[in-house]
Design brief:
Layout: H1 2-11, E1 32-35, E2 39-42, E3 45-46, E4 49-50, H2 58-75
Antiparallel strand pairs: 1-2, 3-4
Length: 77
Amino acid sequence: MRRMIIRIAERTGIKVEERPWKLTESGLTECMMSSTTNACLPLCRIDGAPVGSGKPGPVCKQLRALIINELEALRGV
């Protein structure tokens, strides 16, 4: 799933950067995780602290929609 999300992101011009980070890092606006059952899931709070605005961000929403469309296409829906 992670590789599929990265491939879709790069194909649609969304910059992908994988590296260690801290919740207190300046400029952190979105965080997401992926799994086989949840595709691309926004993380709005970590250890009780909000990530960005504390709401799902536009990049995660866009990636989630794109991955769901890709999965449905693979299933023939």
